[in-house]
Design a protein that fits this description.
The complex is a heterodimer of chains A (about 230) and B (about 80). Chain A has about 230 residues and is an alpha/beta fold. In chain A, about 25% of the residues lie in helices and about 25% in strands. Chain A is built from 5 helices and 11 strands, in the order E-H-E-E-H-E-H-E-E-E-E-H-E-E-E-H. The radius of gyration of chain A is 16 Å and the shape is globular. Chain B has one domain: Phosphoribosylformylglycinamidine synthase subunit PurS (Mth169, Chain: A, 2-Layer Sandwich), CATH 3.30.1280. In chain B, about 35% of the residues lie in helices and about 25% in strands. Chain B has a 3-stranded antiparallel β-sheet with strand order 2-1-3, covered by helices on one side. Classes of the chains: A alpha/beta (about 230), B alpha+beta (about 80).
């Protein structure tokens, strides 16, 4: 399986993602934002970080970079595109997934482990995962998911919510919502579910000695689903 | 020609920064403030000399980059 990780000026989780993808069997290539051509890929990842210093709005500049036109075309033809953290912010700015990510409700940069409940398994990202709840890491200032009421209705009607913030037992409540996101949304799909944007970092949970193993579950499952 | 743009958050969108500014003003003794909403202001100096064409171009910039229309409104100030 071939993957590509796009590096924007200010990306800082691109190499972590490279390590994670390779660990679970992907042949990964790093792709520079100013390139026009996307290498042949089964998965494209927009990594976390602070592309363009978060100027104007997080992800807004990166969403207009040269490579993104190829990424958008790839996604529109059914290609798997996953945006993590700043990558999620870039995805919403391209319009590939609906909504926006606002400043966290309590104006704090949040850096901690969270639990997320998988809302939908009829997709290549979460199909066949045994767990209902995963422990991932979040580190963001603008992760407060927001969308219009019309968009929310559409998202819910199409079952586009991927994961919600919850407690370790999968209980989705306000008190487990770290950043004020509507409906505790931590990640969403596009309508076709080939594009996934999420704030949590699975690539930070691939080593028990450093963190945890739930990211390993995610990546192992993902590559099997793509085969 | 210089054209100015003001970007504001839509009414229903939470503005935590505006809220904190409001609280701080309150603490400083400005107790009459009902609400503070924070926005953005741009000055765009363009080579275009025709007023209408320049405004149309800036409107396109607003829609494509300067504003995110899910949460923000834009207002183009007439060039002087």
């Amino acid at each position: 399986m071939k993957s590509s990780v796009i590096t924007f000026p200010g990306s800082n989780c691109d190499r972590d993602m490279d390590v994670a993808l390779k660990k679970f069997g992907f042949k990964n290539k790093m792709v520079w934002h100013a390139d026009a051509e996307l290498p042949k890929s089964d998965l494209v990842v927009l990594p976390g970080g602070f592309s363009y210093g978060d100027y104007l709005r997080c992800g807004s500049m990166a969403s207009k970079s040269k490579i993104m036109q190829s990424v958008i075309n790839f996604a529109n033809s059914g290609g798997m595109v996953m945006g993590i953290c700043n990558g999620f912010q870039i995805l919403v700015e391209t319009g590939l997934v609906p909504g926006v990510l606002l400043r966290n409700k309590y104006l704090e940069f949040i850096c901690k482990n969270v639990f997320v409940k998988i809302n939908d398994k009829k997709n290549k990202y979460f199909k066949n995962i045994d767990n209902e709840v995963l422990e991932f890491h979040i580190a963001h200032n603008e992760g407060n998911y927001f969308c219009t009421n019309d968009q929310l209705k559409e998202i819910e009607d199409n079952n586009q919510i991927a994961i919600n913030y919850c407690d370790e037992n999968g209980k989705i409540e306000d008190q487990f919502n770290p950043n004020g996101s509507i409906k505790n949304i931590a990640g969403i799909f596009n309508k076709e579910k080939n594009v996934l944007g999420m704030m949590p970092h699975p690539e930070r949970m691939i080593d028990t000695s450093l963190s945890g193993e739930d990211g390993s579950l995610f990546f192992k499952n993902l590559i099997n689903n793509l085969k | 020609m210089k054209i100015s743009v003001i970007i504001t958050l839509k009414k229903d969108v939470l503005d935590p920064q505006g809220k904190v500014i409001h609280q701080t003003l309150d603490g400083m003794g400005f107790e009459d403030v009902n609400e503070v909403r924070q926005g953005k202001y741009f000055e765009i100096d363009t080579k275009e000399t025709d007023n209408d064409r320049a405004k149309a171009k800036v409107e396109e910039m607003c829609k494509k980059l300067l504003a995110n229309l899910v949460i923000e409104n834009y207002k183009i100030i007439d060039p002087k």
